[in-house]
From TrEMBL:
Pfam family membership, one: Orn_Arg_deC_N
Family: Belongs to the Orn/Lys/Arg decarboxylase class-II family. SpeA subfamily.
Keywords: Decarboxylase, Lyase, Magnesium, Pyridoxal phosphate, Spermidine biosynthesis
Name this polypeptide is given: arginine decarboxylase
Biological processes annotated in GO: L-arginine catabolic process; putrescine biosynthetic process from arginine; spermidine biosynthetic process
UniProt-listed Enzyme Commission number(s): 4.1.1.19
Modified sites of kind N6-(pyridoxal phosphate)lysine: K97
Single GO molecular function: arginine decarboxylase activity
Matches recorded under InterPro entries: Ala_racemase/Decarboxylase_C (IPR009006), Arg_decrbxlase (IPR002985), De-COase2_N (IPR022644), De-COase2_pyr-phos_BS (IPR022653), Orn/DAP/Arg_de-COase (IPR000183), PLP-binding_barrel (IPR029066)
KW Nucleus (keyword) present: no
Length: 588
């Protein structure tokens, strides 16, 4: 057997999720332990960009990531349609609400030309944003918002310019308005009966916000005779980030049943099936079937889609409406650590007359558990009491002393008998101390502005340092942002390292907390990071922030508007870097 690895770039790549089926294509670590973007033949160190442009906070927009996600989706369809003999067309559209900023829409337009990528819009503003492309081509434009004359007037311009416009209907109101615009094709948006679970499950079900119930649809069919003729699409959207394939399968099944049944009652023009969003992005790529880690890939998704609609005759055109999957990976938020604070009470050696060493820590796990319980009891006993300064210092010293000595003892026990680790971390109290944070790193960003979903829906974003990735981490740190809001903190970290590593490397250098255990899936209470050296600029990156975060950004504490480093390729495949400053180099 080969010797287990000491710390190496390979361990870091696994720890920080950089061996990844999507972003692994262009994000890696070089031999100096720096996070690099692979652009064509070149490698760009992210830390060099931050230093070169003198930035403490930045969004790095790597537009080729959008192109490669589009290509992956399209090529997957092409291959699998041949495998299954599917003759229906594939028609991707970009749902603009996922990221309507002009840089992104321009990229979708430009890279989408090859694949005829269309758009799904939900508001007047989104339609207006597309107006600059009106005469530059003709794509599919699905409108999915509330219908009005103002909306229809704008859409008629696209229709006249040769675009393929489809307006989804969700109510009688929509049909009344559409009665006046006989040229516009109609999609029937139907509420999925099935609720897929997850953070956006209220999108679906009979009480869901969107679409028609079947009894309303059947009633409207009788009253609006033209519907038969004009309806060409069925739309069933089950929500976003649907992380289990069986839920996707249920939505596809509903769509297929609707297609067959509606065709049977005379909707002969329905030839397009839009199965909505939901294609989940692997924010963590362990295929666990959890909100951050879907249990399927784009290949599974499209395979299922084609297999489902293969028995419908004739084969319908399939609309792919995933937006999160297309743009999530293109934006990386980078922020400098501007302060390092103790997380809680700070460890310091006892001084003379200040308690001295009261008791040694026992060698047995049972004994350690008793002490942990004891320190908890102290805290609950003094709850609500007012302590003098001396008393409070004393209590803080005792709690810290025990905590840190216990960790040292546990590490000793594990070192002397590594196979005991499973049993030791099985105890929730012990697991908690071994994976508790010891530092709070204040970083130059605002969760509310830069990754709002971390606050809004507790979304997991992969965090990684952009340097020192060849070194073992020093501590587990909670990340505090610059806002004065207690929700502006991030502490969850998934550790999932597959390679065999030395016992040394399991524990951080300074606080001896666990940062990983080989072949174990762990949730840590802090992020494994390095203590910045004196005068060292230490930066942290948040990956895959390209979907939804730009439009949802909040102005909490008036901290917002990070500068952007936009990276694209020129025609010869060479990187082109542009810096877009929003008036500030730093949030501080
Ligand atoms: C939001 C939305 C999408 C995007 O879904 P994702 O799974 O987040 O990409 C697709 N279709 C419709 C109708 C939407 O409202």
């Amino acid at each position: 057997m080969s010797k287990p690895a000491e710390w190496s770039v390979e361990v870091s790549k696994q720890l920080y999720g950089l061996e990844h089926s999507n972003r692994g294509e262009y994000l890696t670590v070089d031999e100096t332990g720096s996070l690099v973007l692979k652009v064509g033949e070149e490698s760009i160190r992210i830390i060099d960009l931050m230093k070169k442009y003198g930035l403490e906070t930045a969004y790095i927009r790597f537009l080729p990531a959008i192109k490669s996600a589009m290509r992956r989706v399209f090529e997957t369809y092409k291959t699998l349609s041949q495998v299954h003999g599917y003759t229906g067309k594939f028609q991707p559209v970009f749902p603009m609400k996922v990221n309507p900023i002009p840089i992104v829409i321009d990229a979708i337009w430009k890279y989408g030309e090859e694949f005829n990528w269309g758009f799904n819009t939900g508001s007047i503003g989104e339609i207006k944003l597309l107006h600059k492309y009106l005469n530059k081509g003709s794509r599919l434009l699905i409108y999915d918002g509330v219908v009005s004359d103002n909306v229809l007037k704008l859409l008629m311009d696209f229709e006249k310019a040769g675009w393929n416009v489809i307006v989804d209907v969700e109510s009688e109101h929509d049909l009344q308005v559409l009665s006046k615009y006989a040229n516009i094709h109609v999609g029937l948006r139907v509420k999925p009966f099935y609720k897929p679970g997850g953070k956006w499950s209220h999108s679906a079900g009979l009480e869901g916000k969107f679409g028609l119930t079947i009894n309303t649809l059947l009633k409207l069919i009788k009253e609006y005779k033209w519907l038969n003729e004009r309806a060409i699409l069925i739309h069933v959207h089950g929500g976003s980030q649907i992380y289990e394939l069986k839920h996707i399968a249920a939505i596809f099944e509903e769509a297929k049943t609707l297609l067959n049944d509606l065709r049977n009652i005379g909707f002969e023009n329905i030839s397009i099936i839009d199965t909505g969003g939901g294609m989940a992005y692997p924010y963590h790529d362990s295929r666990k079937g959890t909100p951050e880690s879907p249990n399927y890939t784009i290949v599974d998704y499209i395979n299922l889609l084609i297999k489902k609609f293969k028995d419908a005759q004739p084969h319908p055109t399939l609309v792919f409406e995933g937006g999160r999957y297309i743009v999530a990976s293109h934006r990386i938020v980078v922020a400098k650590v501007v302060d390092v604070r103790p997380y809680s009470t700070e460890y310091k050696p006892f001084e003379n007359g200040n308690g001295a060493r009261m008791v040694g820590i026992p060698d047995s796990i049972e004994g350690i558990k008793k002490i942990l319980q004891y320190t908890r009891d102290i805290q609950s006993k003094i709850k609500g009491k007012t302590l003098t300064l001396t008393e409070r210092e004393r209590v803080e010293d005792i709690i810290t002393h025990f905590r840190e000595e216990i960790i040292v003892k546990l590490v000793e026990i594990i070192r002397s008998n590594p196979s005991s680790i499973e049993k030791i971390i099985d105890d929730p109290l012990i697991y908690k101390v071994l994976t508790s944070p010891s530092k709070r790193f204040i970083i130059s960003l605002s969760l509310f502005a830069d990754i709002p979903d971390a606050v809004l829906v507790n979304q997991y974003f992969q965090v990684t340092p952009i340097q020192k990735l060849d070194e073992r981490p020093d501590v587990l740190a909670v990340l505090g942002d610059l806002t004065c809001d207690s929700m502006g903190e991030l502490r969850e970290f998934i550790s999932d390292v597959e390679i065999e590593t030395s016992i040394n490397s399991w524990f951080n250098r300074m606080d001896f907390r666990i940062n990983h255990l080989p072949k174990k899936y762990l949730k840590l209470g802090g992020i494994p990071l390095h203590l910045p050296g004196k005068d060292e600029d230490y930066y942290i990156a948040f990956l895959d922030t390209g979907a939804y975060q730009d439009p949802l950004a909040m102005k909490h504490n008036l901290i917002y508007g990070a500068p952007e480093i936009v990276i694209d390729l020129d025609d010869s495949g060479k990187p082109v870097i542009k810096v877009v400053k929003h008036g500030r180099k730093s949030y501080l």
